[in-house]
Specification:
Radius of gyration: 18 Å
Order of helices and strands: EHEHHEHEHEHEHHHE
CATH topology: Rossmann fold
Number of strands: 7
Keywords: Cytoplasm, NADP, Oxidoreductase
Helix content: 40-55%
CATH class: Alpha Beta
Subcellular location: Cytoplasm
InterPro entries: Biopterin_syn/organic_redct (IPR051721), NAD(P)-bd_dom_sf (IPR036291), SDR_fam (IPR002347), Sepiapterin_red (IPR006393)
Protein name: Sepiapterin reductase
Structural class: alpha/beta
GO biological process, one term: tetrahydrobiopterin biosynthetic process
Bound molecules: NADP nicotinamide-adenine-dinucleotide phosphate
Strand order of the largest sheet: 3-2-1-4-5-6-7
Strand content: 15-25%
Number of domains: 1
């Protein structure tokens, strides 16, 4: 451990979207080990059953036995109603003892990667994709910032789970690349506007999750599809745990430039 790394994330309120599976579930597990007693978590996704299974697992963990409070919010983040239920649960879980609010905007969808850009002729389809992947992320972040305002001694960290697709075009991934690019710029603007926030866009690398399985089987572009299949066959996908360890290190060190895009492989990474 470097001398500039803190030992824990404080007495934190962690709000994690897309916590039912994949990377979000791992983030919840790893964060639970790094927060101080008296911390709380609000976990959200559509699958209530998977969230409750994670809640039960955390309750039996060392953190749970030390008093970590975990609330599940089964909600569709593409709907305003779902988003509001997350905000009210976060408000309820907040207390004067909390010294760190951490919002992890992790939930996302891949969109239809089986088609090329020229086929996206229906505004309703594109709007629906952007509603979950961009609008809900902006509005949830804004509402959390309003509901849990700045006060002395309170750190507020906003994490955006991003992708290389925010920076590079991937053929047949128009929706996903557009959403990730828009989302990332939105967080750069936020970081510029609010210097007291700690804003990070973390790119976790190719992860062995359901999203990656869909990418491997459904991507229309043959070269990209082959790249993903080859990576899977060669065992080159990262585990969620390995990538999450890098994110936790970044949060503990807390030395990133607010608004930065940081890739798990470092600044020179440029192929999927
Ligand atoms: N996998 C990769 O290779 C990779 C690479 C770079 C970046 N990323 C990014 O990493 C993050 C996590 O990806 P992942 O691979 O873990 O994906 P995943 O396995 O598909 O999980 C996505 C999560 O988002 C939730 N979600 C999806 N739609 C939702 C909705 N309408 N409302 C609420 N929650 C919703 C899902 O839960 P429910 O279905 O229960 O709602 C699930 O918990 C994403 O932001 C992704 O873009 C992934």
């Amino acid at each position: 451990m470097s001398s500039s790394q803190r030992a824990d994330l404080g007495r934190a309120l962690c709000i994690i979207t897309g916590a039912s599976r994949g990377f979000g579930r791992t983030v919840a597990r790893e964060m639970s080990r790094l927060v101080k007693p008296g911390s709380a978590m609000v976990l959200t996704a559509r699958s209530g059953e998977d969230l409750r299974a994670l809640q039960a697992e955390l309750a039996e963990s060392e953190a749970g036995r030390a008093g970590l409070k975990v609330q599940c919010v089964p909600a569709d983040l593409a709907q305003m109603e779902g988003l509001l239920s997350v905000v009210s649960e976060a408000e309820a879980a907040f207390s004067e003892h909390i010294d760190h609010v951490i919002l992890v905007n992790n939930a996302a969808s891949l969109g239809d990667v089986s088609r090329f850009t020229r086929t996206f002729t229906e505004m309703a389809e594109v709007d629906s994709y952007l509603s979950l992947n961009v609008s809900s992320c902006l509005c949830l972040t804004a509402r959390i910032l309003q509901a849990l305002p700045s006060r002395p001694g309170l750190q507020r960290s906003i994490i955006n789970i991003t992708s290389l697709c925010a920076l590079q075009p991937f053929c047949s991934w128009a929706l996903y690349c557009t959403g990730k690019a828009a989302r990332e710029m939105m967080f750069r603007v936020l970081a510029a506007e609010e210097p007291d926030l700690r804003v990070l866009s973390y790119s976790p690398g190719p992860l062995d999750t359901e999203m990656q399985a869909v990418a491997r089987s459904s991507t229309a572009d043959p070269d990209l599809r082959k790249t993903f299949s080859d990576m899977f066959a060669a065992g080159q996908l990262l585990t969620c745990e390995a990538s999450c360890a890098k994110l936790m290190k970044l949060l503990l060190e807390d030395s990133f430039t607010s608004g930065a895009h940081i890739d798990v492989f470092g600044p020179d990474h440029c192929v999927p």
